[in-house]
Amino acid sequence: MLEWLTRNNVETSLSMRKAELFDVIKLHAPQEKTFKMDQLIRSHGHEVLRLPPYMCDLNPIELAWAKIKRVVREYNVNSDLTLTRLKEVTEMAINQVTEIDWCGFDDHVIILEETDKKTDYWKIRSTNS
């Protein structure tokens, strides 16, 4: 804690207790987390959109995973896949997720977002998470 305070030019006393140091850090810490990856993405002209936690239905990759798992299940009817065969089937399932699928996943999420915005459902859910 002392190292962080020193590195950020915040005056402290060596006699301060841990709780006091933590309070000082909270006062001087940036209000919003910054990530190097976000800076890189923004430097290329893109916007970073963070989903509220635990909102799988607004994440298109969850739909892709659902398709992959469904395909693997279809090839594992007897529950007898060896590790080698499971790897092969999983790779095949991943390759079956097409660009058309991704467009559909994105469209589905956009429809959910629009519906949620109209009902303020997103705001309610993100504050309850």
How is this structure best described in words?
- By secondary structure, this protein is mostly helical.
- It has two domains: 49 residues, no CATH class; 79 residues, no CATH class.
- The protein starts with a helix and ends with a helix.
- The model has no long low-confidence stretch (mean pLDDT 86).
What's the quick description here?
With 129 residues, the chain is mostly helical.
Secondary-structure map:
Elements: H1 2-7, H2 18-28, H3 36-43, H4 60-74, H5 83-95, H6 99-119, H7 121-128
Helix pairs in contact: 4-5, 4-6
What are the defining features of this structure?
Tc1-like_DDE_dom; RNaseH_sf; 2 domains; 129 residues; Tc1-like transposase DDE domain-containing protein; mainly alpha; nucleic acid binding; 0% strand; 64% helix
Structural class: mainly alpha
Strand content: under 5%
Largest sheet: none
Please tally the helical runs, counting DSSP H or I stretches of 4 or more residues.
7
User: How many beta-strand elements?
Assistant: 0
**End-to-end span in angstroms?**
29 Å
Low-confidence stretches: none
Q: What is the alpha-carbon Rg in Å?
A: 23 Å
Tell the overall outline.
elongated
